[in-house]
Automatic annotation (TrEMBL):
<dbReference type="Pfam" id="PF03992">
    <property type="entry name" value="ABM"/>
</dbReference>
<feature type="domain" description="ABM">
    <location>
        <begin position="2"/>
        <end position="92"/>
    </location>
</feature>
<dbReference type="InterPro" id="IPR011008">
    <property type="entry name" value="Dimeric_a/b-barrel"/>
</dbReference>
<dbReference type="GO" id="GO:0004497">
    <property type="term" value="F:monooxygenase activity"/>
</dbReference>
<keyword id="KW-0503">Monooxygenase</keyword>
<protein>
    <submittedName>
        <fullName>Quinol monooxygenase YgiN</fullName>
    </submittedName>
</protein>
<keyword id="KW-0560">Oxidoreductase</keyword>
<dbReference type="InterPro" id="IPR007138">
    <property type="entry name" value="ABM_dom"/>
</dbReference>
């Protein structure tokens, strides 16, 4: 499995609302079209209204690459910079968890 944890900090409250709308549109397409994307969860951060955290888990590196190649993901990546001031990405190596089979 291959995973990411991404923290976005939006520019301001209006940008956060626009970013959330972009995330919602993109998320629906991910749900409909990506069987290899096992988890794509977006979180607001309590007490930090401009921050969003994404937790993404893919079946394997190939599923992640398929996700990244989708036109709607490319649109998201191009448009997100209109709304965010900072992006921090951590690549994750799943060791254990509930609800997922971990193969090493």
């Amino acid at each position: 499995m291959f995973g990411l944890m991404v923290r976005f900090t939006c520019k301001d409250e209006d940008a956060a609302a626009q970013f959330d709308a972009l995330v919602s549109r993109t998320g629906e397409l991910i749900k409909e079209n990506e069987p290899g994307t096992l988890i794509y969860a977006v979180h607001r951060v309590d007490g930090r209204p401009l921050e969003r955290i994404f937790y993404e888990l893919y079946r394997d590196r190939g599923a992640f690459e398929a996700h990244e190649s989708q036109g709607y993901v490319q649109t998201f990546l191009a448009q997100r910079d209109l709304y965010v001031a900072d992006v921090q990405v951590d690549r994750l190596d799943l060791m254990s968890g509930k609800g997922v089979d971990v193969e090493h």
